[in-house]
Amino acid sequence: MHVFVAGGTGYIGRPLIELLLKDGHSVTGLTRPGSEGKLPAGCTPILGNALDADSYQSRVAPADTFVHLVGVAHPGPGKGQQFRDIDLKSIECAVAAAKAAGIRHFVYVSVAHPAPVMREYIEVRSRGEQLIREAGLNATIVRPWYVLGPGHWWPYALLPMYWLMEAIPSTRESARRLGLVTHNQMVASLRHAVNHPPAGVEVRDVTAIRRLGRV
Prior knowledge:
It is a single chain. The chain is an alpha/beta fold. It has seven helices and nine strands. Strands 3-2-1-4-5-6-9 form a seven-stranded parallel sheet, sandwiched between helices. It has a two-stranded parallel ribbon with strand order 7-8. The longest helix is centred in the middle third of the chain and has 22 residues, at 80-101. It is globular.
């Protein structure tokens, strides 16, 4: 396949592109001018701005798969305006560009919901899911809660609390839905999503990320 990746220079994007190239796919990566060197070797850079669809829309084709990984780094409760300015604007542009290019499969990283915190982040990512559905795109929507990995280790301290919550029937569902996934599980799950496009819209929750992250 030919895969177009927006957000390919980041925490998840780089290792994902490396795996997709290993799988034999052709991969193009959207990047700002001057950041081409941050893309893995073998990935063709597409210069543009993720917040301006006109800057790259004409160069999405001939890709058949669009992977959207753009978003605010280290999301937190105090970043509501950044979520609207970056996360929401970028997915609006991505959906418009994907539809114009005739993309057959759209892969989107959303977030687990409902949840008692991060209301604005969840609202923005839910709006992204809605835009994908309204556009009529075949899509895989991946809903992690928190991805453990380099620079993101502190939630390991919460694992005993999760184990306890999963053991209690009244909190088991929430603990599983809002569970932690590893960086490797997330990347592997996205790789699986690219290689197994659905008909319609498929939503992958934390349980599915963990399961598919092992295959």
